[in-house]
Specification:
66% of the residues lie in helices and 9% in strands. Helix 1 runs antiparallel to helix 5, helix 3 packs across helix 5 and helix 5 packs antiparallel against helix 6. The two termini are 70 Å apart.
Length: 436
């Protein structure tokens, strides 16, 4: 009398499992195909695409704004380096009688004096300022490039976490149905208590995984909101889908094609140029700057007009600037080593990112073309065999778990693919100063 209702219940359990565990790669993410006309449409409905997130980050990120301020400060120093010292106005009164007459009996003079830098000093100052400005601009570009990379990775993290949460939601529903069915079958004496406990343990595990997935999505959203400088968009609906195919063209850009123009290399070379100019300036420092003074006036007591020409020349007898020259020489060596270190670091990062990208492409392809289809086929076979009495309840639980794990692993591989792509783009396609 009990076999028919139980068989019917198990049939419905198998139907639920087959519906809630579809092939993730075969269907687009929710809302991915909804039409979107423009950025204004996105802003109106609270949607957040990757392009919009990048625009917001470049406009609002406080760290990038601080970097822009440092760039402007370096430009200001470059402008100031071109300025000569201001002339000095000099007014004097000499041979003034202390008892009577005052200014009317003194030699009254008015003139100006100007410091004339030793030849080459001002040019070295200009070169130092120009290199400083170039380094500031390159550092700002590097910060922009790093910000774009971080936004992309945070965006992909949210997509991965939310897709994983969807898989876990499906698994929780299946586990709940399985736990309920196990309780009924154990009460009917059809399965052992061990099988029932196994179903209940799987339900507890999936509920814990759901909490973790929600937490990861929340943390990723907070990170993205901080990067774009818009806390109000923390819960915005993301649009677009991550890359699931890979792009072989990205693997063809060798370091020789992009290394010289990378902002980190540009900044390193600018710091080297600044160090070289600083060394040259330190060598010129002991050379005296001449102070020229020209004044005119009148000797009131003699009723004669006066002219005065003065030259003041420092004598570098004690301070030969040896310490600053030694410091500047060390700065040049440090800058040269910095160029080599930056080049080696970028090449090593490019090789690591290329290896990750290649591995991720292969793994994503394997999951999409072989692992996921096989796991779905195995699930279907076990469900059918279970209904026919060929497989036990634990076999069904295992294959359901295996299928869900394959889907979650696929999402993680997608994230690795897109994160490696973001790393490669940051190195081989630095963000120009005028985009997005």
């Amino acid at each position: 009398m009990q076999q028919k209702p139980l068989s019917k219940h198990l049939f419905y359990l198998g139907l639920v499992a087959s519906v809630t565990l579809p092939l993730a790669a075969a269907r687009p993410p929710r809302n991915a195909n909804e039409p979107r006309s423009a950025a204004s449409r996105e802003a109106g409905d609270g949607a957040l695409s990757l392009d919009r997130a990048l625009r917001l980050a470049l406009a609002n990120n406080p760290n990038l704004q601080a970097s822009a301020a440092r760039k402007e400060a370096a430009n200001g120093r470059a402008v100031q380096a071109r300025a000569w010292p201001n002339p000095e106005l000099e007014i004097s009164s000499q041979d003034m009688p202390p008892s009577r007459g005052g200014f009317s009996k003194a030699k009254n003079m008015a003139g100006i004096s100007q410091v004339v830098p030793y030849p080459g000093k001002k040019q070295a100052d200009i070169e130092i300022g120009t290199a400083d400005a170039a380094a500031g601009t390159a550092s700002w570009r590097l910060n922009r490039t790093e910000l774009v990379r971080e936004v992309k990775i945070a965006f992909y993290q949210i997509q991965t976490a939310e897709r994983t949460a969807t898989v876990v939601d499906d698994l929780v529903r299946v586990a709940q149905a399985a736990s309920t069915a196990a309780g009924k079958r154990n009460a009917a004496g059809e399965i052992t208590l061990q099988e029932q406990l196994r179903a209940e343990i799987q339900l507890e595990q999936t509920q814990t995984e759901k909490v973790d997935a929600v937490r990861e999505a929340t943390v990723a959203r907070q990170e993205l909101a901080m990067l774009i400088g818009r806390p109000d968009l923390r819960d915005a609906r993301l649009t677009g889908a991550p890359d699931e195919a890979g792009d072989p063209v990205r693997l063809g850009r060798a370091p020789s094609a992009w290394l010289a123009g990378h902002p980190a290399m540009v900044a390193a070379r600018a710091r080297r140029d600044q160090a070289v100019a600083t060394l040259r300036r330190a060598g010129l420092e002991p050379r005296p700057d001449v102070k020229v003074g020209l004044a005119g006036g009148r000797d009131e007591s003699a009723e004669e007009n006066l002219m005065e020409l003065r030259f003041t020349i420092p004598l570098p007898l004690f301070d030969r600037n040896k310490g600053k020259q030694q410091e500047a020489q060390a700065g040049v060596r440090e800058a040269e080593a910095g160029i080599m270190a930056t080049e080696q670091r970028l090449i090593a990062s490019w090789r690591a990112a290329t290896a990750r990208y290649q591995a991720a492409v292969k793994q994503v392809t394997a999951h999409r073309e072989r692992i996921l289809p096989k796991s779905e086929a195995a699930l279907h076979l076990v469900q059918t065999g279970f209904e026919e009495g060929k497989f036990g309840f634990i076999d069904l639980l295992d294959i359901q778990r295996t299928t869900a794990e394959a889907r979650m692993a696929y999402q993680k591989k997608l994230f690795e693919l897109n994160a490696a792509r973001a790393d490669l783009e940051a190195m081989t396609e630095p963000v120009p100063a005028s985009s997005p």
